[in-house]
Amino acid sequence: MRVVLGVIFFAHGARRSSAGSAGPDCAEPSPTFKQALGVPAPLTVLAALTEFLGGLAMIVGFLVRPAAVGLIIVMLVAIATVHWENGFFINWSLEPGKAHGYEMNLALIGMALAVLVGGAGAYSIDRWLRPW
Predict the structure, then answer these.
(1) HEC readout, 47-112
(2) What is the DSSP string of 8-56?
(3) What is the pLDDT of residues 58-109, one digit of tens each?
(4) What pTM was estimated for this model as a whole?
(5) Max Cα–Cα distance, the chain, nearest Å
(6) What percentage of the chain reaches a pLDDT higher than 70?
């Protein structure tokens, strides 16, 4: 679960930052967030770095508990600012004019909570550094 969570956030963080090349919003993430949500550039960079570095931390299993807290905060902010008003469900039919609800964000929060409580697991840098 830790690695899957890491891949998801790493990909989204790379897309939102200049570290990735997939997607139209890579070159300038700040204007996209600022225009759509009114988010200041420093907070946009912080969110993108949290997703990117938090995802990387999950993949390799290093400092996963602090990373999980950061990812949970990013998802709670996403729910509060974007997805809550769209209801619970994802817009599976891709109905024009209708955005996604907070269903996926809630699933990601649940995964991050599991990692926060359970730790990095046997195959991780955290376990290698502190075997107990």
Answers:
(1) HHHHHHHHHHHHHHCCCHHHHHHHHHHHHHHHHHHHHHHHCCCCCCCCCCCCCCCCHHHHHHHHHH
(2) HHHHHHHHHSTT--SSTTSS-HHHHHHHHH---HHHHHHHHHHHHHHHH
(3) 999 999 999 999 999 999 999 998 899 999 999 988 888 888 999 999 999 9
(4) 0.83
(5) 52
(6) 84
